Fold this protein.
Amino acid sequence: MMEKMSHISRVTMLILVLSPLAGMAGIDADVKSDNDKADSLVKPMVPKDSLVGEIRAFQSMDFMTKAEVYGMIDSLLDLDEIPKELIREIQLVVSSKYAKITEVEIAAKEQAYPASQYYGKWDTYNTHPYPESLSKNDTSLELVLSRPGEAYIPPVIGLITSNFGDGRNHSGMDIDLQVLDTVVSAFDGVVRIARTHGGYGRVVVVRHYNGLETLYAHLHRIKVRTGQKVKAGELVGLGGSSGHSSGSHLHFEARFKGKPLNPRHFIDYRNNVLVNDTVILNRTRWSYSVVPKGLKYHRVAKGEFLYLISKQYGISISRLCELNGITRNSILHVGQKLRIS
């Protein structure tokens, strides 16, 4: 039965067995010294010279193979008298060698990366390590951004200096800040990247429990480490202009399975709040379109233009353009859907 147990369980069992055996070997009737009182195990009445061989053998346990350790344990369990020195050696080996294995296993479980149902890896070096195959079969899915007790906190509040896309391959939002301004995590999560990386400069990537990843680039200082759990609003870095940057600002990205999402489609930058707690991600050719759940849309009919649509719903043309990522001069197409709330 003992052979079927793991080495951790086996050594633990040995400690439990040795204690009563030591007691049965005979307890010193004299009053214990302070050092003896500190010992949790009783002192056996055993001639020391008869056990020198066993003690020396056991002290070599650290150099034994697993099979040899098991053999030593089995032989000790057959002894009629167990010396205190042997018991102390077992305790030292357990605490310095075997107990650490359990601690590592527990730590590994606690550090298991979030959203493992979506991702097959936890890459702490590459900012965008995910293959196309990770998302190619997706069609539509619901993503909960915020729950009670899990709020959204704006990473930094400032003027938007460049939008998502913005006529170029720009995968995020640029938000103005001063060097050393605090930058915080938008949601609860675990830090996946905290390093200097190419054009991003000093960058932090946080993976959140719903599978979303947010990126904070061009930092002056990084204030977190890889694997660290962070809460929404917790400091991740200080603003700066590291990497390919023409001035101090925060480059903020939101990605799902490595695909960039337009933050304006789920964050109201006027009020610095989420448009909705839940969004629908619809797979497109290159990424995902983000539609806040319960949002209202207008389908463009023949002959309609921005002025008429804005009057119909009581919103300004500039707001209509902002909501849909278009300009006043954009050409509308029949059947095109425009977000109106």
User: Anything to note?
Assistant: The two ends are 68 Å apart (CA to CA).
